[in-house]
């Protein structure tokens, strides 16, 4: 049996962040008339015993995940690091 994957779900308009697993309850969200919400589902990578990372991107952009240009994890005996290159206005 495979490992249960964890995801971060980011809601762009309300700026909410949820941690989910296959056993999580459903996310309930009410969307008002003439409005919208964007849900980004981002897999979580376990980097160490107590460290996890999910590349959401630039949250001030309409398509936050689309701002990610390069992404990678690097591990050595001494440390773990993440390289993330994005495009867009980071302000």
Structure report:
- InterPro entries: Glycosyl_hydrolases_36.
- Keywords: Carbohydrate metabolism.
- By secondary structure, this protein is mostly beta strands.
- The protein has one domain (about 5-85).
- The protein is about 0% helix and about 35% strand.
- The protein has strands spanning about 5-10, 15-20, 40-45, 45, 50-55, 70-75, 80-85.
- The strands form three sheets. The protein has a three-stranded antiparallel sheet with strand order 2-1-3, with no helix packed on it. A two-stranded antiparallel sheet has the order 4-5.
- Strand 1 and strand 2 (about 15-20) form a beta hairpin.
- It is flat and about 55 Å long.
- The termini are far apart.
- The mean pLDDT is about 85.
What's the count of strands? Answer: 7
> How large is the radius of gyration?
15 Å
Number of structural units classed as domains = 1
SS-based structural class?
mainly beta
Instruction: Identify the quaternary structure here.
Output: single chain
How much beta, percentage-wise? 35-45%
Distance, first to last CA? 43 Å
Residue runs with pLDDT of under 50 for 5 or more positions: none
Number of helices: 0
Helix fraction, binned, reads under 10%
For the sheet with most strands, the description reads:
3 strands, antiparallel
Mean pLDDT: 87
The run of helices and strands is: EEEEEEE
Give the neighbour order of strands across the main sheet.
Answer: 2-1-3
What form results from the Cα inertia axes? flat
Keywords: Carbohydrate metabolism
InterPro entries: Glycosyl_hydrolases_36
Pfam families: Raffinose_syn (PF05691)
């Amino acid at each position: 049996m495979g490992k249960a994957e964890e995801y971060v779900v980011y809601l762009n308009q309300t700026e909410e962040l949820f941690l989910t697993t296959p056993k999580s309850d459903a996310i309930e969200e009410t969307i008002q008339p003439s409005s919208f919400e964007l849900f980004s589902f981002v897999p979580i990578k376990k980097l160490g015993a107590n460290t996890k990372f999910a590349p959401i991107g630039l949250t001030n952009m309409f398509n936050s995940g689309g701002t990610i240009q390069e992404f990678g994890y690097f591990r050595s005996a001494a440390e773990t690091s993440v390289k993330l290159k994005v495009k867009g206005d980071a302000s």
